[in-house]
Predict the structure.
Amino acid sequence: DSGVTQTPKHLITATGQRVTLRCSPRSGDLSVYWYQQSLDQGLQFLIQYYNGEERAKGNILERFSAQQFPDLHSELNLSSLELGDSALYFCASSVTGQGTDTQYFGPGTRLTVL
Amino acid sequence: GENVEQHPSTLSVQEGDSAVIKCTYSDSASNYFPWYKQELGKGPQLIIDIRSNVGEKKDQRIAVTLNKTAKHFSLHITETQPEDSAVYFCAASWGIPTNAGKSTFGDGTTLTVKP
């Protein structure tokens, strides 16, 4: 158990809908990262937050947004969902958010868009 | 941006044999190279990492080597066991100048250890 929690574990929704994924980092970690894992694309970095502020952006679509709250939990919002958004979404956390930090991954949320 | 290539994509070994997975990266600024193991239905878990000021690191049956000149690093698993069967990912990231923890991951290697 990494100490990172994600809810929900599974999410099934329809195209065009909007969903919110939630992540709670390990105690003491200030930085949160979001990744998308599709069958044919491996792990893709989406976005990173540090202590409430956006720190780095990867291949995140404009339909997706995220934020980190004062209690350090983070939410990833996915809107106007398409079939291709079906994937595993992982959250990870680390202490300082620097590139040499160890990242601890949560168990993931499996999103299915029908 | 950084590009990480990982080989092979699948690897099958007999229990007790060694397994080697190799990664190459493109950005010479990368200075942190973790390896993750992902079991079915779970998130990736860090198994070993190496920083650019070190050439080799070992932890029991697992070792990682880094060649900064050639920009490649490898994971070595000795005396493999069936429970080593999983998907293994390498990654490369850098801490300066932006201090952003953005990691680039390889595409993964599915390791199967046959009893």
